[in-house]
Amino acid sequence: MARAEEDSEKVAGARVEVPSGTGRDEYDSLSIGCERAIASRQEDGRTIVYITPTEKGSAKPGQWVHCAGKDRPPSTACEVLGIVDGGMLEASCGEVKPGSARPAK
């Protein structure tokens, strides 16, 4: 199966493409599998989240990621701040959805 097909989801009966970027910024976030994500606190208008990735080493500090799964739409983009507790990601999340266009300057 092609990568694009693997990253597709069914939402309300329609196939939705889940973008998988390079992780370089909020508009090019990397698609990762997540077992769970727990919101911790608000900081400067962003939510600090602790993400348990399904695969250790799938992200590193400074990368932008979003959780993707077959049973739910992709999460917003989050910047990985650090790796804690043996592989859990501490991340700062905003409102940008995967595949969003950059705002015009």
Structural write-up:
Residues 1-27 are annotated as: Disordered. The chain has one helix spanning 3-6, and strands spanning 8-11, 14-17, 30-32, 34-43, 46-53, 64-67, 78-84, 88-93. It contains 1 helix and 8 strands, in the order αββββββββ. It has 105 residues and is mainly beta. The model is unreliable at 1-16 (pLDDT under 50). The longest helix has 4 residues, at 3-6. The strands form 2 sheets. Strands 3-6-7-8-5-4 form a 6-stranded mixed beta sheet, with no helix packed on it. Strand 1 and strand 2 form a beta hairpin. It is 4% helix and 44% strand. It starts with a helix and ends in a 12-residue tail after the last strand.
The first-to-last residue Cα distance is: 38 Å
Oligomeric form: single chain
Q: Tell me the strand order in the biggest sheet.
A: 3-6-7-8-5-4
In round numbers, the mean pLDDT is 83
Count of runs of 4 or more consecutive helical residues = 1
Share of residues in strands: 35-45%
Based on helices, strands and strand pairing, what is the structural class? Answer: mainly beta
Query: H/E series, N to C?
Result: HEEEEEEEE
> What spatial form do the alpha-carbon principal axes imply?
globular
Poorly predicted runs are 1-16
The number of distinct β-strands equals 8
Gyration radius, rounded:
13 Å
Give helix % range: under 10%
Main sheet characteristics: 6 strands, mixed
Region (Disordered): 1-27
